[in-house]
Amino acid sequence: MQMLPDSGVHTFVKSHTSLESSRRSCLGFSLVEVLATLVIISLITGIAAVSFGPLRQKHNLSLATEDLVRQFRLLRIKAILDKTTYQAKINNQVLHYRLKLGNRWEDWQTYQLSNQIQYNMSGTSRFYEKGFVSPKTVTLSDGEYRQQLIVNINGRIRTSELY
Questions:
Q1: DSSP letters of 55-98?
Q2: The pTM is what?
Q3: Does residue 67 sit in the same domain as residue 144?
Q4: CA distance 3 to 1
Q5: Closest Cα partner for 150 from 141, 137, 163, 139?
Q6: Is residue 134 packed enough to be buried (19+ CB in 10 Å), middle (13-18) or exposed (0-12)?
Q7: 3-state secondary structure of 1
Q8: How far apart are CA 147 and CA 161, in angstroms?
Q9: Selection from 112, 118, 121, 115 nearest residue 145 by Cα
Q10: Contact 148, 139 (CB under 8 A)
Q11: Where in the sequence is the domain holding 68, given as residue range(s)?
């Protein structure tokens, strides 16, 4: 006589347990799990926002410096090609420039610089027809970061490191 195991009860318990677990998995996440996830995402976002602030300032400063370098080089090239002198100054985020025709200066022309950056340039700088430039240092700042644009007498323009 061979006894068959009573699989009926065991099968019922097994299928009932798997039915419960599959029903629970269909319900979704609990409130505690959702709140914990939101807290973690908020912390990561807050840390990222704080760390990207200085990066944005440095990027804005670099863009403004490149723009001003382009404008100064353009004025130097115009002076050489037009065989005249150009004069430039910066007031309130605006580059003012004019050219000299004969013995008189023309009216000031303007070029709008970045509104997010503070520019500090004392006096004016001149760009002469032989390529020479009156030496000048311009300090650009955005918040706590600063960069200097240095123009030497030969018209060479260099920038300092961000500090």
A1: HHHHHHHHHHHHHHHHHHHHHHHHHHHHTSEEEEEEETTEEEEE
A2: 0.69
A3: yes
A4: 7
A5: 137
A6: middle
A7: coil
A8: 6
A9: 118
A10: yes
A11: 60-159
Write out the two tokens for 123.
């006096």
* Domains contained in the chain, number: 2
Cβ-contact 163, 147 below 8 angstroms = yes
45 with 100, same domain: the answer is no
3-class DSSP state of 5: coil
- Counted residue by residue, the chain has a size of 163
Report the DSSP pairing between strands 157-159 and 145-151. Answer: antiparallel
Residue 123 forms part of a structural domain: yes
| Structure-token match 């050219």, residue found | 99
- Distance between CA 12 and CA 22 in Å, rounded? 15
Tokens 């760009």 correspond to 127
Over its length of 163 residues, how does the chain's per-residue pLDDT go in tens digits? 555 555 555 554 555 555 555 555 567 889 999 999 999 999 888 887 777 777 888 899 999 999 999 999 999 999 999 999 999 999 989 999 999 999 999 999 999 999 899 999 999 999 999 999 999 999 999 988 999 999 999 999 999 887 7
Nearest of 125, 110, 117 to residue 143 by alpha carbon: 117
